[in-house]
């Protein structure tokens, strides 16, 4: 047993409540110098691996946290990132994105970064929200969601040189870090599934048309119809905010305007939850006289009544990937190397089938 290891086992690793744990606290507990502890926490080459692992373990047990104020002064870094989250409805928290936040913040915390959530309220200007964060100098990088084809926030961040990553793509010529789902493939596959199930003119209920991913859904949807030499009347493609309330109202509207409709792809699990309620309000019932497919980043559709077939991705995993890309962008990596398109998994509850 090494001398250091023996010392660690022989000391009580305790601290008074409210006492701040410093490098000296860790050094005293281990019988090492402050310099050795500091170098071990940085995994310096002059410290052996056994000591590095021991110091890290004991520092964790004692609750040691780096003095970010001092680090910030020395490096010019804040060791914080910001996640800008649009709030689509007043007074309600979007629980669907909670796992995305957890994934991103867990990844960054393991690397010494704090995560700040920046709400973008309904009345807020999206560009002004991002500009305020940059001008405050409170973060080293930003994650933004709900991209548009010519996103002004992305243009601004590229111009000022702030590291960032988007959940969603743009149609800008300048390469920028992004993680996205292949929404065009999803739209095409949803149309194929519903047409193959015998639904002659299924409906597409897409998110607001200002967002890039909504337009991608539509392109994929139209592509499947075109491949089968079928036309898609504009009246069978609808756009709505992705909330339960909007989904409910949309279901009642299409039930009245398209009584012959037997199926829809509702491209949001939150809107689909409301859509189920709206169908019941209109005297229709999913799983009996109406077929549905949805899309989202949680397992919520598994618990709907009836459970819905869904194109699924993990919001938690997306959050981790966004954070990983942002961490690399902060380190100065080439933005062209920080782009990824994720394939969704189809979870089949047979809710797309036509019932007799």
How would you characterize the overall build of this protein?
With 356 residues, the chain is an alpha/beta fold. The chain has 3 domains: 3-65, 434 Repressor (Amino-terminal Domain), CATH 1.10.260; 77-181 and 315-342, Rossmann fold (3-Layer(aba) Sandwich); 183-312, Rossmann fold. Helices cover 42% and strands 15% of the residues. The chain is built from 13 helices and 12 strands. The protein has helices spanning 3-10, 23-30, 34-41, 49-62, 68-75, 98-109, 126-136, 152-160, 183-196, 212-227, 244-257, 269-281, 315-330, and strands spanning 80-86, 114-120, 141-145, 164-167, 178-181, 203-206, 237-239, 263-266, 291-296, 309-312, 339-342, 345-347. Helix 9 (183-196) crosses helix 10 (212-227). The chain is elongated and about 80 Å long. The model is unreliable at 1-11 (pLDDT under 50). Residues 21-75 form the HTH lacI-type domain. This is Transcriptional regulator, LacI family. Keywords: DNA-binding, Transcription, Transcription regulation. It comes from Rhizobium hainanense.
Features:
356 residues; alpha/beta; 434 Repressor (Amino-terminal Domain); Rossmann fold; 3 domains; 6-stranded parallel sheet; 6-stranded mixed sheet
């Amino acid at each position: 047993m090494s001398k250091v290891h023996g010392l660690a086992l022989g000391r009580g690793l305790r601290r008074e409540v409210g006492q701040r744990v410093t490098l000296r606290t860790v050094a005293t507990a281990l019988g090492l110098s402050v310099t050795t502890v500091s170098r071990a926490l940085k995994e310096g080459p002059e410290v052996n691996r056994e000591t590095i692992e021991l110091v890290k373990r004991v520092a964790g047990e004692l609750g040691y946290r780096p003095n970010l104020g001092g680090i910030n002064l020395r490096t010019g870094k804040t060791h914080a990132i910001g996640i800008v989250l649009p709030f689509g409805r007043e007074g309600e928290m979007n629980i669907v994105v909670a796992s995305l936040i957890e994934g991103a913040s867990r990844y960054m915390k393991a690397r010494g970064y704090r995560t700040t959530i920046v709400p973008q309220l309904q009345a807020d200007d999206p560009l002004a929200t991002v500009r305020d964060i940059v001008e405050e100098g409170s973060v080293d990088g930003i994650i933004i969601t709900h991209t548009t084809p010519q996103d002004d926030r992305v243009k601004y961040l590229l111009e000022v040189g702030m590291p960032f990553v988007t959940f969603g793509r743009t149609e800008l010529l300048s390469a920028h870090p992004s993680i996205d789902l292949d929404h065009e493939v999803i739209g095409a596959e949803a149309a194929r599934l519903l047409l193959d199930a015998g639904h002659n003119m299924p409906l597409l209920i897409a998110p607001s048309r200002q967002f890039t991913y909504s337009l991608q859904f539509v392109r994929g949807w139209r592509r499947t119809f075109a491949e089968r030499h079928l036309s898609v009347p504009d009246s069978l493609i609808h756009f709505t905010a992705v909330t339960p309330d909007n989904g409910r109202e949309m279901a009642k509207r299409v039930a009245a305007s398209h009584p012959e409709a037997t199926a829809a792809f509702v491209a949001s699990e939150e809107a689909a939850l409301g859509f189920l309620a709206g169908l019941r309000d209109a005297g229709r019932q999913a799983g009996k006289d109406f077929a549905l497919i949805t899309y989202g980043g949680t397992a919520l559709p598994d618990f709907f009544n009836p459970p819905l077939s869904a194109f699924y991705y993990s919001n938690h995993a997306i959050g981790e990937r966004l954070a990983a890309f942002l961490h690399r962008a902060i380190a100065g990596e080439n933005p062209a190397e920080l782009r990824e398109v994720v394939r969704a998994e189809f979870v089949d509850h047979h809710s797309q089938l036509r019932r007799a």
